[in-house]
Specification:
This is DsbA family protein. Keywords: Disulfide bond, Oxidoreductase, Redox-active center, Signal. The chain is α+β, with helices and mostly antiparallel strands and 206 residues long. The protein has one domain: 3-Layer(aba) Sandwich (Glutaredoxin). It is 52% helix and 10% strand. It has a 4-stranded mixed beta sheet.
Length: 206
């Protein structure tokens, strides 16, 4: 019974404030990159069960149909707000982006795959290192990533802090919160909503 209640609590943290989510769009001008890719921005947390739903059911399709084809530029803003261990995952993600950006998507999916069905602390350096070791990288690059995310005031630490500052500045109240081509996705759990917006933005750009 305790596990059920605690899981419910962590889920509520992700969505309870959605009703009072800001009406303004902080990304209304974030439509395209300089090379014409549609911007996809997702605010979330590796510990958020609702974010995991998007990561497992939506993002693989987006990756195959748009990101790999160079049509969409994907950014995950790690809010790191669901416990002290969340920030470890955020720092590690930024370290991967710093030294092996082409491997970030795989790292993110590996992290969400480790998410348990409870609120306990699970993002540890041991767990993160295991996911880094799964990446198709040389030993020296893996060691650089591990060293960076574990070193205080490193580039990845500063980037993780900027993510936290960004979601607070933009008054993001809900995880996940998704923006595509400058427009907020009202229902982030339906793939058709993503496809419709992306295709519309791509058509407008062509």
């Amino acid at each position: 019974m305790k596990k059920i209640w605690t899981l419910t609590i962590i889920s509520l943290i992700c969505v309870v404030l959605s009703a009072c989510s800001n009406q303004q769009n902080p990304h209304k001008d974030d439509k395209y990159t300089k090379d014409g890719k549609v911007k996809l921005i997702i605010y979330g947390d590796f510990k958020c069960p609702y974010c995991k739903k998007v990561d497992t059911k939506i993002l693989p399709k987006i990756n195959q149909q748009y990101i790999k084809k160079g049509k969409v530029d994907y950014r995950f803003v790690n809010m790191a707000f669901l416990g002290k261990d969340s920030i470890i995952g955020s720092r590690a993600g930024h370290a991967v982006q710093l030294y092996a950006p082409q491997q970030y998507f795989q790292f993110q999916q590996s992290m969400f795959a480790q998410q348990p069905n409870n609120e306990k602390k699970w993002i540890t350096t041991t767990k993160v290192d295991q996911q880094i070791d799964k990446l198709s990288l040389g030993a020296s690059t893996k060691e650089k990533i591990k060293k960076d995310y574990k070193t205080q005031d490193s580039k990845s630490w500063k980037a993780a802090k900027k993510d936290q500052q960004l979601y607070k500045k933009n008054k993001i109240k809900t995880a996940p919160t998704v923006f595509i081509g400058g427009k907020k996705v009202e229902d982030p759990y339906e793939y058709s909503n993503y496809k419709q917006l992306i295709d519309k933005k791509l058509k407008a750009k062509s």
